Amino acid sequence: MITMSQKEARILIVDDNVSNLALLNNMLGRIGYKDLRQTTDSRQVVGLVAEFKPDLIILDLMMPHLDGFEVMQQLESVIPADTYLPILVLTADIAAPTKRKALAAGATDFLHKPFDASEIFMRIRNLLQSRFLHLAAQNQNQLLEQKVAERTTELSTALEQLKETQRVMLQQERLRAFGEMAGGVVHDFNNALMSVIGYSELILNDPTVLDDKPTVLDYLKTMNTAGRDAAHVVGRLREFYRPREETDVFESVSLNQLIEQVASLTQPKWKDQALADGRTIALELDLEKVPTIAGNPAELREVFTNLIFNAVDAMPSGGTITLRTYRSADKVSFEVIDTGVGMTEEVRTRCLEPFFSTKGNRGTGLGLSMTFGVIKRHEGELEIESEPGRGTTFRINFPSQVKIFEAAEAEAVIAQRPLRILVVDDETVSRDVVHKYLVADGHEVVLATGGEEGLERFQAENFDLVVTDHAMPGVNGRKWPDRSSRPARRNRS
Ligand code: ADP
Ligand code: MG
User: Fold this and answer.
1) How many A from CA of 310 to the centre of ligand 1?
2) Could you identify the atom of ligand 1 that is nearest to the CA of residue 342?
3) What is the tens place of the pLDDT at every residue in 476-493?
4) Residue 79: inside a domain
5) pTM check: above 0.70
6) Pocket of ligand 1 (CB under 6 A)
């Protein structure tokens, strides 16, 4: 008649009337319910609920000590809100207000006295069914929650691993580009050294040349240029590999200057290496005078390098790369245009995805995703136009920085007046060189031969500018006080 789980249900009967209790006990027993518990003392209900854990409570309303309403009130505070424990209220009073009051207090259903066996059976069966469905749903929920928690842990571990892999791959991509460039730097650096060594040996081998002033000056000029070029090459390489810091602040960047730098920095790839492979690639600059942009030069250099490398890769039988800048409304645009193989629609839509590459082992597929990240950080937009067989244009639109540009120009004009400058350097030669340059520009120069002396003079006198060496014994350039009331201090490195 009733299912297994229904028979196993625990039912608690509460009634102060012993003969009622006996009657109910008897009726339920006959229907098949075995696990019954009863009490005539309503004060015991809360304790019994905790101990017996009933699936259903049959509760009389009119009782001494605590009436049915008060019992329900007590139960409300001990039964968790998400637990469905049906309460079947026994009442002889079928008046609507009593029913409403009982429902409000937490009753689930009613049984009218005198009892009718088939009504009791059906009401109990329905309430227990609801109770068991509720329990099953709760179990399922718990299982699901557990599963979700497990999956979340798995996913966040996977995400961490992916991030780590991406970081390592990016580092590799950077190293690869760095390696390609280092070859070119060695080449350029050697050329510079050859000039310095060659011309100095000319003089050393034949000291009479020293009497010929114009020739010696000529030699010196060439050596000087070569030395400067070499310093430049090394400087650029160092900047390229400068470790990235999250806290890097943006500065005013001259796009054209940066592009010229990158053009020569990448020359080993687009010119020398391409020539060695038997293809000729021309790099053309089409640079309009544009305002500065706010940016991180190292990141932008890396982006431009990547775009040029991709263009070179896309021209297996040579071609032309054009680097173009122009101004439009409040934007500054930069284009890398190649005459290479172009992209299909599918490649064009996927090329920004991390790890997407059509170059097999030669590609990492990270260049463009990194590029896109940097452009986003610069609040720029990236546009890609491409057609198979006709080449590709990558266009970046940066927000322009017109106001700062104008302010910087104004500042440059103000700086034309003679300044009182403190030069701090423990090296005689470089102190002397800086001194001579500044005096030649019409400035008044005070020299200090070390950090301590420099600091004393700085505190005692007024200067418009301090030029200080970084690495010095004792008080070095970094230890200088930061006195914002004082004029700007520039570190010379
Ligand atoms: P990788 O260069 O390592 O393959 P990138 O993220 O730099 O990775 O580029 C992803 C893909 O986009 C390339 O493999 C290539 O298919 C395509 N691509 C990028 N730039 C160009 C371009 N200038 N011309 C044609 N295809 C390009
Ligand atoms: Mg690439």
Assistant:
1) 6
2) 25
3) 666 666 544 444 444 443
4) yes
5) no
6) 306, 310-311, 314, 338, 340-343, 347, 351, 356-359, 363-369, 392
